[in-house]
């Protein structure tokens, strides 16, 4: 009887210890997510990127690296998949070798014990595809020194704001988005991850006038005529690709195909980091969805602010096609 009681106490202690360890781990994980953004040289970034900023700043690009740059929710995964297909001669199976976030690492994304884009890229053989959401002034110096080619994709602000709001809700590295109206206010003020959309798109647009190695694409153009835009990318890379291969790329990188492909739709990302039950990563992929979200009053306020912020810029966007 005594032995049984002793064993019972021992089991109880072990269960308490296990429970304590699990609880600590959960608290530690929760401590990673939904934290406030941190200012890095005037741009709001995840706290973990700010803490590891020296790693990002000192990233060593190689001459044959291709930098894919975008403001979040502007077609990053789409153009990444297109480029991986071009680099792999449209071999669909090869392009399903791993999740897109491993095939095209997110350079500056560093989260303790979860991911380190700089370290990921160090393991990848050349030629490397490198993803960034950094505004042009924060891109590591080595990319400019090595004359790397860069492809920037811009999307109209209204659709970005809507898509970003839904992304904020499902991707837990972001702070809580609040209501749509609250989030829209933060977006307009540049108080969201990776800062002001206005500064981002204008900064890269101005940079391309003095850097021929930058190809500036528009999401709306890609939706309107994907073949034309893919051929533009192929020419920029100095490659020759047959009509048959181009058509294969277009099929594989259509929204319909990518949405059901686990290596491109982010369902391979753990659920505690991205909750697809809240909103799928690949939600609609259309131009003009903002009309389903903006109220008349919000749209009027947005347009007035937009005109002020974009004054003097030669950059023009279409909000529908």
Automatic annotation (TrEMBL):
<dbReference type="GO" id="GO:0005737">
    <property type="term" value="C:cytoplasm"/>
</dbReference>
<dbReference type="InterPro" id="IPR027417">
    <property type="entry name" value="P-loop_NTPase"/>
</dbReference>
<keyword id="KW-0808">Transferase</keyword>
<dbReference type="GO" id="GO:0051923">
    <property type="term" value="P:sulfation"/>
</dbReference>
<feature type="domain" description="Sulfotransferase">
    <location>
        <begin position="63"/>
        <end position="313"/>
    </location>
</feature>
<comment type="similarity">
    <text>Belongs to the sulfotransferase 1 family.</text>
</comment>
<protein>
    <recommendedName>
        <fullName>Sulfotransferase</fullName>
        <ecNumber>2.8.2.-</ecNumber>
    </recommendedName>
</protein>
<dbReference type="InterPro" id="IPR000863">
    <property type="entry name" value="Sulfotransferase_dom"/>
</dbReference>
<dbReference type="GO" id="GO:0000103">
    <property type="term" value="P:sulfate assimilation"/>
</dbReference>
<dbReference type="GO" id="GO:0004062">
    <property type="term" value="F:aryl sulfotransferase activity"/>
</dbReference>
<keyword id="KW-0963">Cytoplasm</keyword>
<dbReference type="Pfam" id="PF00685">
    <property type="entry name" value="Sulfotransfer_1"/>
</dbReference>
């Amino acid at each position: 009887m005594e032995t049984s009681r002793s064993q019972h106490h021992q089991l109880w202690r072990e269960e308490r210890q296990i429970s304590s360890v699990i609880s600590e781990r959960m608290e530690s994980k929760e401590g990673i997510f939904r934290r406030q953004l941190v200012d890095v040289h005037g741009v709001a970034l995840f706290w973990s990127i700010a803490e590891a900023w020296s790693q990002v700043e000192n990233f060593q690009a190689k001459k044959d690296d291709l930098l894919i740059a975008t403001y979040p929710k502007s077609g990053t995964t789409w153009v990444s998949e297109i480029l991986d297909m071009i680099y792999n001669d449209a071999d669909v199976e090869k392009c399903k070798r791993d999740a897109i976030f491993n095939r095209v690492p997110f350079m500056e994304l560093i989260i303790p014990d979860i991911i380190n884009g700089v370290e990921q890229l160090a393991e990848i053989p050349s030629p490397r595809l490198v993803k960034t959401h950094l505004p042009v002034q924060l891109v590591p110096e080595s990319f400019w020194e090595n004359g790397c080619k860069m492809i920037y994709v811009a999307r109209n602000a209204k659709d970005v704001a809507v898509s970003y709001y839904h992304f904020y809700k499902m991707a837990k590295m972001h702070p809580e988005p609040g209501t749509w109206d609250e989030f829209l206010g933060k977006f307009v003020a540049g108080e969201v991850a990776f800062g002001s959309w206005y500064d981002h798109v204008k900064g890269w647009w101005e940079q391309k006038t003095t850097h021929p190695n930058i190809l500036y694409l528009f999401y709306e153009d890609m939706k309107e005529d994907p073949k034309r835009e893919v051929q533009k990318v192929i020419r920029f890379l100095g490659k020759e690709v047959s009509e048959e291969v181009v058509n294969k790329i277009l099929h594989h990188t259509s929204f319909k195909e990518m949405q059901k492909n686990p290596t491109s739709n982010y369902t391979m990302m753990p659920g505690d980091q991205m909750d697809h039950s809240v909103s799928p990563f690949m939600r609609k992929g259309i131009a003009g969805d903002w009309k389903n979200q903006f109220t008349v009053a919000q749209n009027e306020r947005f347009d007035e602010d937009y005109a002020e912020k974009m004054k003097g810029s030669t950059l023009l966007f279409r909000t529908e096609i």
